[in-house]
Amino acid sequence: MVIDDVDRLDPQELLLLFKLIRLAGRLPNVYYLLAYDEDTLLDALSRTGLIGEGSARRALDYMEKIVQLRLDVPPVRERQLATWIDREVGELAARLSVTMDQEQRRRFDQAYYSHIRSRLQTPRAIKRFLAQVESLAAGLSQEVDFVDFLILSWIRASEPLVYRAIIDQRSRLLGELDPTGRIWPGDRDAGADHAYWSDVLTRSRVDSAQLSGVADLLSQLFPNFAEQWGVERSGHVGSVRHGRIAHKDYFDRFFAFGVPDDDLSDRTVEKACAEIIAGASGPEREVVERKWPDETSLIIGKLNRYWDPGRVDGVVVLRWLAIQAIRLPALDYLPGTPYRETVHFAQSHFTHLRGDRPLAAVRAMADEDPSLRFAEDVISVLRGGMAPPETRNAEFAAAKTEFAARASTLFDAQGDTNPLDYPTEIWDLFGMWLAADESAVRRWADKHLADGSWPLLDLLAQMVSRAVPLGVPDPPTLVGDLNLAEVDRTVGLDRVRRELADEIEQFDKSLPNRAVATPENRRAVALRALKVSHDS
Predict the structure, then answer these.
(1) Are 170 and 176 in contact (CB under 8 A)?
(2) Is the pLDDT of residue 236 over 50?
(3) What is the pLDDT of residue 231?
């Protein structure tokens, strides 16, 4: 007769069991196999009136009278444990159709040998741990980092209060309290940060002997935790790989055990990317395009994973992005918005184009967006010192020429309209047009100035930059500065100073800080810049 888990009985039940075996269970040809953890059993017996608290030796002597033959389970060797773990994890990954790359294997080995190994000492514990992983990973195997899920699953099973603390400390762990993701030396008190996390782990009932190991696991999951737990400061927390728990777009998936309704699965985006490149329609592409205006940042982050610049047809990518960029609200033209994220992503593809593809890309973007706004923002990466070395060649010069030709058409279409009355979306192209084809801009300006269709000062006033304050409801457009180098390239500074000599000489108006960009104030800024430069 096998009686398992004897150590789980309370002290009085233990004594009753042994009494039954000793007095009532003496039957011919019947043997009792008792399975138990000895330390736990002796501790329970020490809490009975028969043995007496703290009398571990007496408890052992008592058991010697009960147990006729000891069959101690041999200890599991380290090599056996490592082999079992490797085999079980490999088989689990295969069942979930997960492929672990070398970097992931390294991370799992680091987590296992640094801490998990010391607390997974039996095949039963290993089976229990991986069974929990498998039961919860079915809907996530292709959507999150498998190793992070393994580590988090171990924390959930072994340190449930730490698991809850991870959820509660999301903002601090992801660096959302510091939007730049940077932690500069001196910005924070290293000792205070370490003390903060020590308190969190202590309140999560982590045994003091296990504190360092649990902290090491959290450091592997969250770079921000590693920075704040450690004494040394590197000064910067690097970017986080897609799929990992420390990535803001994936954190919630690890706790929802699936893709939340307001998220977008990676498999959907991957299939949509393939459909777009192939020029095909499909349900996944439809989902991505439907969600685009509201979830642009989320989608751009995932496109970065599946559209590697230089490895997919960049012209197709840029054409599709031009169509989507038009759908974004005008406010998104401001820095740090989804529109700017789209431009930055498009620029990375544009600069990887070769041969005749830069020219084809400009044509594709311009065909989809005749206003040239998106094309202008993308190819602005070619301006002056901003241009990457690999783009300073004839291939990209042809692309700038194509843009300049199309921009010239848009400016010529304004006819004799006063420069101050040009539509903003047209004038915003001026800087890139000047950079792309200075001679065409000069001919355009000379023509209108020569026939007197608009005043020179109004052209300069329109060339004054504008600024929009951030974080202000319904912000006004404010005046900026006049770029005299651009003025020189457009009409020539000598000509300006000659023709506007009287206005410059007589100018004595002061402007308030944050002056609104009215035509009068813009003219004043232009004259002030010319007067200051002349006097200096």
Answers:
(1) yes
(2) no
(3) 46
For residue 181, count CB atoms less than 10 angstroms from its CB and return exposed for 0-12, middle for 13-18, buried for 19 or more: middle
Average model confidence (pLDDT) across the chain: 87
Residue 183 has pLDDT above 60, yes or no: no
Which H or E element spans position 467? strand 466-467
Residue 107 Cα distances to 104, 155, 219, 509, angstroms: 5, 16, 11, 66
Q: How confident is the model at residue 182 (pLDDT cuts 50, 70, 90)?
A: very low
Rounded to the nearest 5°, which phi and psi values hold at 435? -70, -30
pTM of the model: 0.71
β-pairing, 466-467 vs 478-479, is antiparallel
The whole-number average pLDDT for the span 281-300 is 92
Give Dmax (Cα) for the chain. Answer: 127
Mean pLDDT confidence for 320-325 = 95
Query: What's the pLDDT tens digit per position in 56-66?
Result: 788 888 888 88
Cβ atoms of 464 and 504 closer than 8 Å = no
Give the separation between CA 251 and CA 378, rounded to whole angstroms: 31
Q: Three-class SS string for 399-430?
A: HHHHHHHHHHHHHHCCCCCCHHHCCHHHHCCH
Cα dihedral 114→119→123→125 (10° resolution): -130
**Is the pLDDT reported for residue 258 higher than 50?**
yes
Residues forming beta bridges with residue 185, ordered by sequence position:
188
pLDDT of residue 169: 94
Q: Exposure pattern of 257-268 as b/e (b: 16+ CB <10 Å)?
A: ebbeeebbbbeb
- Distance of CA 466 to CAs 112, 155, 220, 515, 522, Å? 57, 53, 46, 10, 9
The DSSP annotation for 34-69 comes to: E---HHHHHHHHTTSTTT-TT-HHHHHHHHHHH-SS
With a cut of 90, say whether residue 468 has pLDDT above it.
no
Taking the CA atoms of 330, 335, 337 and 338 in sequence, report the sign of the dihedral they define.
positive
Confidence band for 54, pLDDT divided at 50, 70 and 90 = low
Say whether 466 sits in a helix, a strand or coil. strand
Residue 240 DSSP class: -
Q: What is the pLDDT of residue 508?
A: 83
Separation between Cα atoms, residue 427 and residue 407, nearest integer Å: 10
Containing 478, the helix (H) or strand (E) segment is strand 478-479
Contacts of 127 (CB under 8 A, 6+ apart): 88
Phi, psi (5° rounding) for residue 5?
A: 55, 40
